[in-house]
Structures are given as C-alpha cells and as structure tokens.
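During the second year of the project, the team shifted from modelling isolated chains to modelling whole assemblies. The rationale, set out in the original proposal, was that interfaces cannot be judged from single-chain predictions alone. As a representative example for this report, we include one of the complexes processed in the last quarter. Its constituent sequences, exactly as entered into the pipeline, are reproduced here:
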Amino acid sequence: MEIKCKNVTYQDPLLDYQDSILDLTYTFHNNQVYGIIGPSGSGKTTLLELLSKEKIPSNGTIQIGSEKKNISSRNIGYLHQNLDYQFIGLTVEEELDYLLESFSYRLKEKNKRIKEVLMMVGLNNDYLNRNIETLSHGEKRKIGLASILVYNPKIILLDEPTLGLSPKDKKELMRLLKRLKNKYHKLIIIAGHDIDFIHAVCDSICVLDQGTIYLEGNKYDVFAKEEQLKQIHMKVPQIISFSNLVYKRTKINIGYRDDINDLIKDVYRYVK
Amino acid sequence: MLNDILLDLYDSHSFFNRRHIISKIIVTLLLFISLFFVRSYISLLFYLLVLILLIFLSNIPISLYLRLLWQGKCFYIVLYLIYLLCGINPLNSAIMVLRIVFFIVLIFLLVFTTSYQELICGIERILKPLSLIHIDTKAISFSTFLGLQFIPMYLDELYHIKKIMKLRKGKKRTSFQFLIRQIKMLVKNAFYKTISKMEQLSHIMEIRLYSTKAHKTYYQEMRFTCYDGLFITAILLVFILLVLKETIL
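Output from the structure prediction step:
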C-alpha cells in the first residue's frame, strides 16, 4: 500500500494569503518510515493533514492504496502536533473504549487491547481513570499515540511525536516504531524538528521548504548534503555531523551510523 | 482561544473592528432588542440583510459563521419541534428559531471582532452607573464576558470533536445505541472542554493582572470617533424602522 501525491496544492480558504502553502508530487511506499523535515512554516503539518484527509487539497490528487481500492480514513492514524484536537473522550478509558467500540471490538477483546496498547506506549492501567486534560504534555502525547494505535491503522502519521518526551521515552518510541514497521508492516510518516530522532528511525527523508520538496531520498543521501541543508537553516543529525567533521579533519571515512554506540565502536577501531 | 486565533488571522482593520467598544455594545444591544420586532417575512429579510452587511464589514469569512452555526442544527430542530408542540404555528416557530440563530450571529460579531480586555472594559463602562448603588459591576462584566465567549467556544469544540469522530469512524453502519453514545459524548465532552477553556481564560486574565478589585482593568483605549456616532445612528434607524413596521405600518 502506498500514498501517491500528484500535483497536490493547498490554499487555506480562511486566509487572505493567496499563494499555495503546499505544492508537491511524491509517493510514500509501504513498509517504510518516512521523515518530513523542514523549517517552520514549510508545510509539514499541512501535508500530514492532507494525507489524513482532515483537509482536502485545492488541486491534485492524493491516492491512498491501490487505484481499485482507495483506503478509507479509518485505516489512517494521525497524531496531531496540537493535542487539543486529538481526543474525543475526557478520560483515557473513555477515549480508548469509544475508539474500540467504533471499530467493533468485543468487550473481552477491548480490555485486552487497551492493556496492550498502554503497555506499548510505556504506560500502565493506572492511567485509565485519569482525566486527559490533567496529564502532562508527554503523557498526553503517549495517550494520543495509544489512541491511534488502538484501532490498528495501516498508515500512521505522527506530527512532532517526541515533543515533551524524555530521552528514555524517545528510545522506547524508537523501538516501538521500528517494531511497527518490521513486524506489522505499517507505513509510518513522521514530521518534526527532532532531526536526531528522525535520522534514527526513518528510512527516507523528504525535506520541505516553502511548501515544495527541497530534497528527498534515502536518509544517508539527504543528510550527506550538509551544505544544501544549511542554506535553508537545517541542521544534520549530530552523528552525521561528527562523521563529516572526522572526514574533513583526518580524511578517514568512518561512515554513517544510526546509533551512537556503533559510531563509537567504529572510531575505536580506527584509533586502535 | 477562538477570539485570539481569529484576531491573528483576520483583518483587524475592518470597519467593525475599528469601532469603539461602546458603539459595538450599543449596536449589539439595539440589534438584540430589534429581534423582538422581527415577526414577518419582510422584517426577517431586512434584518438578515443588515446582518449580512455587518458580517461583510467585519471582514471575517461568512464560511466561518456558517461552519459554527451548523454545529447547532440539532438544537434548532429540537427547538422548532418544541414550539410546534406548544401550539405555535409552523411559520411563527420558524421565525422564532431564526431569531435565536440571528442572536447567535450577533454574539459572534461582537466576540470575533473585540479583544478580551476591550470587551470587559466596554461592559464595565456601560454598567458604571450601577456602581453608584454599590453593585459590583466589574464582577458582572467579567461574568457577562465569559458568558458571551461560551457559545462560540462551545460550537467550536463541537466542530472539532465531530471532525475527529468522523475521521476515526470505524463501522460503516453505526447502531442506534452507538449513535446515542456518540451524541452524549459529543454534547457532554464539548461542554466540559469549553468550561475548562473558560477556566483557563479566567486564570490568564488574573495572571495578566486583571482583577475585579483593581481600579483600572484596561490598558488600551480607542477614541470615540464620528464614524462610531454614524454607526450607532444607522443601526438606530434600522431599529426604528423595524418597530414602525411591526407597530404602525
């Protein structure tokens, strides 16, 4: 299953600003994790809103699934950047229970699924009776993630998923997303500013600038173009920046790695 | 908050936005009282034209008003049925429901084009004579301000919750029981979230040193210009015409 965006443009009808805030053509392939990065106002959130069918493109088409069977929005899970518009229920239990009932889960299955999903995001059953408004930002984000995973969508869209998360939570989220991709074959698209997280998790990167695609491709190829990224005030992940610095100073190509531990091992090997 | 978001996005230099708060409040009150004189087709049409003109003068897209008004459609239908059950004929019932819709539009016009401090300050000034008989006008004006914010905020919450429900609709056909559950959740949760936002709003006002005990509650003042006088005169004429139409003519 893939998402094909053909000549998609978007103009906000409620704004006086006449230029498109988005104008692109791109294909997202199945069983991959895509990262969408770019400076503020480049159209990352707008793109996710168009893919989640929250907004309708002014022109162009977004085809989700095959031409014969266009996938419906109930197979797409979208985690908003602004969590004010993420939840239907007041408490965690009400939120998850409503969604499971909406997707025809039986009562016995519901309780099991709720426990499973809370464990996946690193929370326990004590959160069930908590009012969502009283949770911390990081906890709300986890509940938001749980609320989209609970009905097992085929496509997962995450807007700034690491906002408010501790380093430990980020690592757990990384593991979860990799498992969702490898074991459950989900298509995951992450938009955000946390370059290091996106580099660690994603396979392909799409860099947006002023609503258009500035760079796209495999993450190593994209982040290798450090100078081009600097032109739009984007930084590369620290791991890649360090590798580039080592190469610049010593002409030793230690290569690109996803994990800092792997990089340290490589550096040790060269030094030894 | 709806008001802040709108003031950031929309033309705050529109004719309506630039009016003095006293003129806006007087105009809103005049139009509200005029609603009681809307009893026939012609008055209804005339009133609607005046409202459309004011919406145009506020420079806020009519689609926003319609989007929010549409969230209350079930409420209008229930109200219409209640009027019918009370023995009021269908035409008069429809006019009465439309009056409520127009009243909601008046609140939108006032709230969307006025900042919080300005609105509270304006209501305080109007109520100032009551302070001579030791009535706490500041507390009343703050409560009135929160009351005015309630309807737009509630309709906005309904819109957002409905949007999420639609996007996450699992079953192709929903059972009657599930539909009732959806409606209950929608009405209750939108209400709770609106109250919670209004509570946050009142905390923010306190943080920004607004206090009903303080001597001064505003920091910015607009001048009352001749345009404000003309504006009030024009709406007063509308009011007089409606009264004359329904009483003498």
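The radius of gyration of chain B is 20 Å. Chain B touches chain A through 23 residues (CB under 8 Å).
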